[in-house]
Protein backbone atom coordinates (compact mmCIF):
# COMPACT_ATOMS: atom_id res chain seq x y z
CA UNK A 1 0.00 0.00 0.00
CA UNK A 2 1.20 3.48 -0.85
CA UNK A 3 -0.90 4.93 1.97
CA UNK A 4 -1.80 8.59 1.47
CA UNK A 5 -0.09 10.34 -1.42
CA UNK A 6 -0.07 14.03 -2.26
CA UNK A 7 1.05 15.94 -5.33
CA UNK A 8 2.81 18.22 -5.90
CA UNK A 9 5.34 18.36 -3.07
CA UNK A 10 6.15 22.00 -3.73
CA UNK A 11 4.36 24.72 -5.66
CA UNK A 12 4.84 28.42 -6.26
CA UNK A 13 1.84 30.42 -7.46
CA UNK A 14 1.19 34.01 -8.32
CA UNK A 15 -1.71 35.83 -6.68
CA UNK A 16 -4.92 35.08 -8.54
CA UNK A 17 -3.80 31.81 -10.07
CA UNK A 18 -5.79 28.65 -9.47
CA UNK A 19 -4.54 25.16 -8.82
CA UNK A 20 -5.56 21.77 -7.51
CA UNK A 21 -3.73 19.88 -4.80
CA UNK A 22 -4.13 16.17 -5.32
CA UNK A 23 -4.65 13.60 -2.58
CA UNK A 24 -5.19 9.88 -2.96
CA UNK A 25 -5.33 6.91 -0.61
CA UNK A 26 -5.37 3.20 -1.34
CA UNK A 27 -6.61 1.95 2.03
CA UNK A 28 -10.34 2.13 1.22
CA UNK A 29 -10.80 4.76 3.90
CA UNK A 30 -14.16 6.51 4.11
CA UNK A 31 -12.96 9.61 5.92
CA UNK A 32 -10.60 12.09 4.27
CA UNK A 33 -9.65 15.60 5.29
CA UNK A 34 -7.48 18.56 4.36
CA UNK A 35 -5.49 20.60 6.88
CA UNK A 36 -3.21 23.56 6.58
CA UNK A 37 -0.33 24.08 8.96
CA UNK A 38 1.09 27.50 9.70
CA UNK A 39 3.72 28.49 12.27
CA UNK A 40 2.16 29.06 15.67
CA UNK A 41 -1.28 28.00 14.44
CA UNK A 42 -1.12 24.25 14.44
CA UNK A 43 -3.07 22.11 12.01
CA UNK A 44 -6.38 23.63 10.98
CA UNK A 45 -9.13 21.69 9.24
CA UNK A 46 -10.13 23.10 5.84
CA UNK A 47 -12.64 20.58 4.47
CA UNK A 48 -13.43 16.97 5.11
CA UNK A 49 -15.39 14.12 3.55
CA UNK A 50 -17.13 11.17 5.19
CA UNK A 51 -17.52 9.26 1.95
CA UNK A 52 -17.82 9.58 -1.81
CA UNK A 53 -20.17 12.42 -2.68
CA UNK A 54 -20.24 13.87 0.85
CA UNK A 55 -18.13 16.82 1.93
CA UNK A 56 -18.36 19.44 4.64
CA UNK A 57 -16.54 22.54 5.78
CA UNK A 58 -13.97 22.63 8.51
CA UNK A 59 -12.55 25.53 10.47
CA UNK A 60 -11.02 27.55 7.59
CA UNK A 61 -12.86 26.71 4.33
CA UNK A 62 -12.87 30.12 2.62
CA UNK A 63 -10.97 30.18 -0.66
CA UNK A 64 -10.96 26.41 -1.05
CA UNK A 65 -13.23 23.92 -2.76
CA UNK A 66 -13.31 20.14 -2.55
CA UNK A 67 -15.12 17.26 -4.16
CA UNK A 68 -15.15 13.52 -3.53
CA UNK A 69 -16.21 11.61 -6.62
CA UNK A 70 -14.40 8.41 -5.63
CA UNK A 71 -13.39 6.82 -2.35
CA UNK A 72 -9.71 7.11 -3.28
CA UNK A 73 -9.36 10.76 -4.30
CA UNK A 74 -10.00 14.02 -2.48
CA UNK A 75 -8.60 17.03 -4.40
CA UNK A 76 -8.38 20.51 -2.90
CA UNK A 77 -8.89 23.44 -5.25
CA UNK A 78 -7.63 26.96 -4.74
CA UNK A 79 -9.85 29.13 -6.89
CA UNK A 80 -7.83 32.37 -6.79
CA UNK A 81 -4.66 32.06 -4.77
CA UNK A 82 -3.79 34.70 -2.19
CA UNK A 83 -0.57 35.22 -0.19
CA UNK A 84 -2.52 34.26 2.95
CA UNK A 85 -2.80 30.76 1.51
CA UNK A 86 0.95 30.25 1.71
CA UNK A 87 1.16 27.22 3.95
CA UNK A 88 1.89 23.53 4.21
CA UNK A 89 -1.14 21.44 3.26
CA UNK A 90 -1.70 17.95 4.62
CA UNK A 91 -4.26 15.46 3.46
CA UNK A 92 -5.31 12.72 5.89
CA UNK A 93 -7.55 9.68 5.85
CA UNK A 94 -9.02 7.22 8.33
CA UNK A 95 -11.18 4.15 8.02
CA UNK A 96 -14.42 5.69 9.18
CA UNK A 97 -15.62 8.80 10.98
CA UNK A 98 -17.72 6.55 13.17
CA UNK A 99 -14.73 4.80 14.63
CA UNK A 100 -12.29 6.55 16.86
CA UNK A 101 -8.99 5.71 15.35
CA UNK A 102 -5.98 7.34 13.86
CA UNK A 103 -5.74 9.44 10.78
CA UNK A 104 -2.94 8.71 8.31
CA UNK A 105 -1.30 11.80 6.89
CA UNK A 106 0.18 12.36 3.47
CA UNK A 107 3.68 13.89 3.12
CA UNK A 108 2.32 17.40 2.57
CA UNK A 109 2.36 20.04 -0.15
CA UNK A 110 4.34 23.21 0.47
CA UNK A 111 2.67 26.14 -1.25
CA UNK A 112 4.07 29.62 -1.70
CA UNK A 113 1.81 32.33 -3.11
CA UNK A 114 3.60 35.45 -4.31
CA UNK B 1 -15.99 25.13 19.71
CA UNK B 2 -12.75 23.74 21.00
CA UNK B 3 -9.72 25.25 22.72
CA UNK B 4 -6.56 23.22 23.19
CA UNK B 5 -3.50 24.46 25.07
CA UNK B 6 -0.04 22.97 25.27
CA UNK B 7 3.40 24.47 25.93
CA UNK B 8 5.18 25.87 22.91
CA UNK B 9 8.64 24.49 23.61
CA UNK B 10 10.40 22.14 26.01
CA UNK B 11 13.97 20.96 26.43
CA UNK B 12 15.04 17.70 28.07
CA UNK B 13 18.19 15.65 28.43
CA UNK B 14 18.92 12.40 26.66
CA UNK B 15 17.99 9.46 28.87
CA UNK B 16 15.63 11.52 31.02
CA UNK B 17 11.83 11.55 31.31
CA UNK B 18 9.68 14.40 30.02
CA UNK B 19 5.97 15.10 30.44
CA UNK B 20 4.11 17.21 27.87
CA UNK B 21 0.80 18.56 29.13
CA UNK B 22 -2.33 19.39 27.20
CA UNK B 23 -5.53 21.00 28.43
CA UNK B 24 -8.68 21.22 26.41
CA UNK B 25 -12.08 22.83 26.53
CA UNK B 26 -14.47 21.26 24.07
CA UNK B 27 -18.09 20.52 23.39
CA UNK B 28 -18.90 16.96 22.47
CA UNK B 29 -15.49 15.61 23.48
CA UNK B 30 -14.95 12.03 22.39
CA UNK B 31 -11.26 11.35 22.92
CA UNK B 32 -7.75 12.71 22.68
CA UNK B 33 -4.92 11.96 20.26
CA UNK B 34 -1.20 12.52 20.46
CA UNK B 35 0.84 12.81 17.26
CA UNK B 36 4.56 13.18 16.68
CA UNK B 37 5.81 15.42 13.90
CA UNK B 38 9.46 15.70 12.92
CA UNK B 39 10.49 18.91 11.18
CA UNK B 40 9.43 18.92 7.54
CA UNK B 41 7.47 15.71 7.85
CA UNK B 42 3.87 14.63 8.30
CA UNK B 43 2.36 13.92 11.74
CA UNK B 44 2.38 10.30 12.82
CA UNK B 45 0.04 8.71 15.34
CA UNK B 46 1.30 8.00 18.85
CA UNK B 47 -1.75 7.34 21.02
CA UNK B 48 -5.46 7.73 21.52
CA UNK B 49 -7.25 7.97 24.88
CA UNK B 50 -11.00 7.82 25.29
CA UNK B 51 -11.24 6.61 28.90
CA UNK B 52 -9.63 8.12 31.97
CA UNK B 53 -6.29 6.70 32.91
CA UNK B 54 -2.87 5.87 31.61
CA UNK B 55 -2.11 4.00 28.39
CA UNK B 56 1.43 2.73 27.96
CA UNK B 57 3.17 1.92 24.69
CA UNK B 58 6.81 1.16 25.16
CA UNK B 59 8.70 4.36 26.04
CA UNK B 60 5.61 6.49 25.45
CA UNK B 61 2.58 6.75 27.75
CA UNK B 62 -0.49 8.94 27.54
CA UNK B 63 -2.87 9.96 30.30
CA UNK B 64 -6.37 11.39 30.18
CA UNK B 65 -8.65 12.97 32.78
CA UNK B 66 -11.98 13.82 31.17
CA UNK B 67 -13.31 15.55 34.29
CA UNK B 68 -10.31 17.91 34.36
CA UNK B 69 -9.99 18.36 30.60
CA UNK B 70 -6.37 17.32 30.88
CA UNK B 71 -3.97 14.98 29.18
CA UNK B 72 -0.25 14.39 29.16
CA UNK B 73 2.25 12.51 27.06
CA UNK B 74 5.11 10.91 28.98
CA UNK B 75 8.32 10.07 27.17
CA UNK B 76 10.83 7.87 29.00
CA UNK B 77 14.48 7.13 28.27
CA UNK B 78 14.65 10.05 25.89
CA UNK B 79 16.62 9.61 22.71
CA UNK B 80 17.95 12.26 20.35
CA UNK B 81 15.49 11.07 17.70
CA UNK B 82 12.62 12.08 20.02
CA UNK B 83 13.36 15.71 19.15
CA UNK B 84 10.16 16.67 17.35
CA UNK B 85 6.88 18.49 17.80
CA UNK B 86 4.16 16.69 19.74
CA UNK B 87 0.61 17.53 18.78
CA UNK B 88 -2.35 17.15 21.08
CA UNK B 89 -5.69 16.77 19.26
CA UNK B 90 -9.27 16.37 20.44
CA UNK B 91 -11.96 14.37 18.69
CA UNK B 92 -15.27 16.16 18.63
CA UNK B 93 -18.36 14.04 18.25
CA UNK B 94 -20.73 16.85 17.30
CA UNK B 95 -22.25 15.94 13.94
CA UNK B 96 -19.61 14.28 11.82
CA UNK B 97 -16.56 13.61 13.91
CA UNK B 98 -13.80 16.14 13.48
CA UNK B 99 -10.35 16.41 14.98
CA UNK B 100 -9.06 19.72 16.36
CA UNK B 101 -5.33 20.11 16.89
CA UNK B 102 -3.38 22.14 19.40
CA UNK B 103 -0.45 24.23 18.22
CA UNK B 104 2.07 21.58 19.22
CA UNK B 105 4.98 21.36 21.66
CA UNK B 106 8.45 21.45 20.16
CA UNK B 107 10.69 19.14 22.19
CA UNK B 108 14.44 19.45 21.98
CA UNK B 109 16.48 16.59 23.40
CA UNK B 110 20.03 17.60 24.32
CA UNK B 111 23.01 15.35 25.09
Query: Which outline of chain A best applies?
Result: globular
Number of alpha- plus pi-helical segments of chain B:
0
Distance between the termini of chain B: 41 Å
> How much is the average pLDDT of chain A?
92
Strand content bin of chain B: over 45%
Overall spatial form of chain B: globular
Low-confidence stretches of chain B: none
Q: Write down the secondary-structure element order of chain B.
A: EEEEEEEEEEE
User: What Rg of chain B is obtained from the alpha carbons, in whole angstroms?
Assistant: 14 Å
According to DSSP, the number of beta strands of chain A is: 11
Counting helices, strands and paired strands, the structural category of chain A is: mainly beta
Task: Give the helix proportion of chain A (percent range).
Answer: under 10%
Main interface: chain pair and counts: A-B, 26 and 22 residues
The low-confidence parts of chain A are none
Mean pLDDT over the residues of chain B: 92
- Report the oligomer: heterodimer
User: Percentage of helical residues of chain B?
Assistant: under 10%
Summarize the structure.
The complex is a heterodimer of chains A (114) and B (111). Chain A is mostly beta strands. Chain A is built from no helices and 11 strands.
List keywords for this structure.
heterodimer, A: 114 residues, 7-stranded mixed sheet, 4-stranded antiparallel sheet, 11 strands, B: 111 residues, mainly beta, 6-stranded mixed sheet, 0% helix
Write the layout of secondary structure elements.
The complex is a heterodimer of chains A (114) and B (111).
Chain A: E1 4-7, E2 10-13, E3 19-25, E4 31-38, E5 42-51, E6 54-57, E7 64-66, E8 76-78, E9 87-94, E10 104-105, E11 109-113
Parallel strand pairs in A: 2-11
Antiparallel strand pairs in A: 1-3, 3-8, 4-5, 4-9, 5-6, 7-8, 9-10, 9-11
Chain B: E1 2-5, E2 9-13, E3 18-26, E4 29-37, E5 44-49, E6 53-57, E7 60-65, E8 70-75, E9 84-92, E10 98-101, E11 105-110
